[in-house]
Predict the 3D structure of the following.
Amino acid sequence: MQTGTNGSENAALARAEDLKALALGCLDEMKAEETIEIDLVGKTSIADTMIVTSGRSQRHVGAIADKIIQDMKDKGFGTARVEGLPACDWVLIDAGDVLVHIFRPEVRGFYNLEKMWGADRPVGRLAG
């Protein structure tokens, strides 16, 4: 028999997985490049997953961010906190358990979040 806490924890995990899948699907659809997923569990309490990706230009970065934000609203995930619009050099979408960083390649290289947070191991490199 499940307790209420276990049930709500399972629901939260399922929601985070659905949100991550939505973000990764949008990134694939929008032709984001060099997408990686970093597992943050046990490293920080700010989120469970960080996704880092690149757009080819400021316009591409903005379009990717807009797609993710709109799909999150349309699928009932609510409104995420967003930083970096309208400059679109680096857009952060903070959806609670999932963080999505969308960079122009030059800016991504400068900040190198993969090295800082991934340290020894990103969860996986996805085609992009």
Remarks:
- The longest strand covers residues 33-39.
- The two ends are 43 Å apart (CA to CA).
- Residues 15 and 77 are 9 Å apart (CA to CA).
- The beta strands are 33-39, 49-54, 81-83, 90-94, 98-103, 124-125.
